[in-house]
Write a structure and sequence with these properties.
This protein is an alpha+beta fold and 302 residues long. It is 29% helix and 26% strand. The chain has helices spanning 28-32, 50-63, 72-86, 128-133, 147-150, 160-167, 216-227, 239-243, 275-294, and strands at 8-11, 14-17, 35-43, 46-47, 91-98, 115-122, 135-139, 176-180, 186-189, 193-197, 203-206, 232-235, 247-252, 256-263, 266-267. Strands 7, 8, 9, 10, 11, 12, 13, 14 and 15 form a nine-stranded mixed β-sheet that branches. Bound molecules: 4'-deoxy-4'-aminopyridoxal-5'-phosphate.
């Protein structure tokens, strides 16, 4: 899958051609990974679940003692300008906010000049075949960050925990690697959340206190499942439960709902994408179409 660079990138309040978009070499995002981000999927030029992503951006900021100086309307306007400059239709958009420049010993209240960078790039989703055949995952030996150390619920720009798990993937054909926590329970994938359908037909997903990012797609799936009468359990999930599951899938804004049909060489259920998974995927895609249709950019009072 080839990602093309975005021709235009927003830095602060200005749009620059890709190679002219620059951030200071003293930026704390670069020096210490001191920043946060969001990745949104763009469908037909519309940022799916924008409000939810902006909400999570604020939660991440708060957890890191950062204050974002922009209103949601201002952020939406920056997103809109970036999408227009790049003429993005089907794409992914990344909002990065760092704490900006400042000494390593500085207090957060003295660092009140965050830097924002927004880039949009064309996006080729995984082959449609993956959604029918499913993908293979493995279980990492790398432990997910402890919530008391660096809470995985914070979408911080420091991705090393996830990247190490990816670098350590053992098998060629693995699409995603699942990280356990220090108690040996499964948490999430390096870039996605995990769900399974158990022997009783219930939807099961690692709970917040397992130490996970509270995915926007995860929330969407849980809400949808509950409203359609499917029982959802958010709980500690062990690897054995995945091996014994009838179905499994991973979720992320850029993946939607992707069936998981193998853990290494062991099939899950009967080894094909399950009916609950495929029904959720279909409803999700309908939800995307409904969202696009009713979406309006917020009014700006600038
Ligand atoms: N967990 C991790 C570690 C991720 O990087 C992502 C991708 N943002 C997700 C879960 C899925 O989150 P979302 O559904 O909000 O894209």
């Amino acid at each position: 899958m080839k990602s093309l660079p975005s021709p235009y990138i927003l830095v602060g309040d200005e749009i620059f051609p890709h190679h002219e978009a620059k951030v200071s070499a003293s930026d704390r995002g670069f020096l210490y990974g001191d920043g946060i981000y969001e990745t949104l999927r763009i469908y037909q030029g519309i940022p799916f679940e924008m409000e939810e992503h902006l909400g999570r951006l604020r939660e991440s900021a708060e957890a890191l003692y950062m204050v974002l100086p922009w209103s949601d309307e201002e952020l939406a306007r920056k997103i809109q300008r970036t999408l227009e400059a790049n003429e993005t239709q089907e794409g992914r958009l990344r909002i990065t906010v760092t704490r900006g420049e400042g000494d390593v010993r500085a207090r957060p209240e003295d660092l009140r000049n965050p830097v924002i960078v927004i880039r949009a790039q064309p996006y080729e989703p995984p082959a449609e075949d993956f959604y029918l055949r499913g993908v293979s995952v493995e279980i990492s030996e790398r432990i997910r960050n402890l919530p008391d150390a660096l809470d995985p619920a914070i979408k911080s720009g420091n991705l090393l925990n996830n990247l190490l798990a990816r670098f350590e993937m053992r098998n060629e054909g693995t699409f995603e690697t699942l990280l356990p926590n220090a108690r040996g329970e499964l948490t999430e994938g390096s870039l996605s959340n995990l769900f399974l359908v158990d022997g009783k037909g219930r939807l099961v997903t690692p709970s917040a206190d397992s130490g996970i990012l509270l995915g926007i797609t995860r929330k969407w799936v849980i809400d949808l499942a509950r409203t359609s009468g499917l029982e959802v359990l958010e709980k500690a999930v062990l690897a054995e439960e995945l091996y014994e599951a009838q179905e499994a899938f991973i979720t992320a804004s850029t993946l939607e709902i992707l069936p998981v049909t193998r853990v290494e060489d062991k099939p899950i259920g009967n080894g094909v994408a399950g009916s609950v998974t495929l029904a959720l995927l279909e409803t999700y895609r309908q939800g995307v179409r409904d969202y696009i249709e009713s979406f309006d950019w917020p009014e700006t009072h600038a």
